[in-house]
Description:
Blueprint: H1 2-12, H2 23-30, H3 40-51, H4 57-65, E1 97-101, E2 109-111, E3 115-119, E4 126-127, H5 131-134, E5 147-153, E6 159-165, E7 171-173, E8 176-177, E9 183-185, E10 190-194, E11 200-206, H6 217-222, E12 223-231, E13 235-242, E14 248-254
Parallel strand pairs: 3-4
Antiparallel strand pairs: 1-2, 1-11, 3-5, 5-6, 6-9, 7-8, 7-10, 10-11, 12-13, 13-14
Domain FHA: 116-178
InterPro entries: FHA_dom (IPR000253), Kinase-like_dom_sf (IPR011009), SMAD_FHA_dom_sf (IPR008984)
Organism: Balaenoptera physalus (Fin whale)
Amino acid sequence: VVMSRETDVECHQPHGSASPQSQGGFSQSHGPSSQPHGSSSQSQGTSSSSTSTVPTSSQSSHSSSGTLSSLDTVSTQELYSIPEDQEPEEPVPAPWARLWALQDGFSNLECVNDSYWFGRDRNCEYCFDEPLLKRTDKYRTYSKKHFRIFREMGPKSSYIAYIEDHSGNGTFVNRELVGKGRRLPLNNNSEIALSVWSNKVFVFFDLTVDDQSVYPKELRDEYIMSKTLGSGACGEVKLAFERKTCKKVAIKIISKRKFAIGSEREA
């Protein structure tokens, strides 16, 4: 059977048409025992010639499937990158109080956390480390941890703000000494002084209390009204802060009724 197969291959393929490099693969498939002794060179020749017509695996796959050859190129389409899912940003909590600075070297503070330490220690949330402040005479009277402002839950699920004194030189609220280790509640427009009652540093502004509505809108758009500085026969003087610059100003409020001497038309 083997000899007849070789003869059939011989009839269809011309002798010596393939290169000698293709001899090994086909002769190994039949094995040395399938060839008669002395005719190995001829059978190898015929076998190698038959392999020239048999397509390789890569060629057969291209020809049978009708795809392009390796020399042809296929244009690629650039894919747009798919954006990764971004985590939603957590909303920034609204401040519950604001400290207005009354002196150079101190800055305003928006109270968002429930507790703030004030002092010369760098571990304090509000550190007295401004160069301008360090050049003042009172700087050495400030403690490393001078005072703390915090809020706690009170009755009817409402918060109460407190100031706690931790300084040997004292913390004052509206000229009243708090006392080391003691606390006092902080009301809207309370004045905070350090070391001596006249060294006023902050005004505490409670943002949960809306007492601005009593003033005209034109005034509220430009200023934030604060504590009363003084009062007299003609009216009262209020401390206020410009909304754009946070600059301190004094606003005098005069009652028109006190000038209504004549008729309503004259008034």
